[in-house]
Amino acid sequence: QVQLVESGGGLVQPGGSLRLSCVVSGSIFSFYTMAWYRQTPGKQRELVARITDGRTTNYQDSVMGRFTISRDNAKKTVYLQMNGLKPEDTAVYYCNRDQLDVLWDWGRGTQVTVSS
Length: 116
Fold this sequence. Notes:
Blueprint: E1 3-7, E2 10-12, E3 18-25, E4 34-39, E5 46-51, E6 57-59, E7 67-72, E8 77-82, E9 91-97, E10 110-114
Parallel strand pairs: 2-10
Antiparallel strand pairs: 1-3, 3-8, 4-5, 4-9, 5-6, 7-8, 9-10
């Protein structure tokens, strides 16, 4: 059974930075496009960034230039470096396969709160 464990969230002031990590266990990792998603109460989960097995990356317009997704296949880990955080980035962040693929069961996510 695939398990996704996200970490690295927290409370940060506007303009601050956080680095999220997601460790994948129970599955081959290196062949899959991986993605970070976020969700706020009452809204659908949205894709924030994706990275292919060849390390091609794509970002939601609202985070372009501020967030960077990366991966370490040896550690079966995907990262999300978030700089220049804004209050509207406040959400629970999750990782999973790309939304065009068959998704694994979701992990618990990690809460990011941007507030002064």
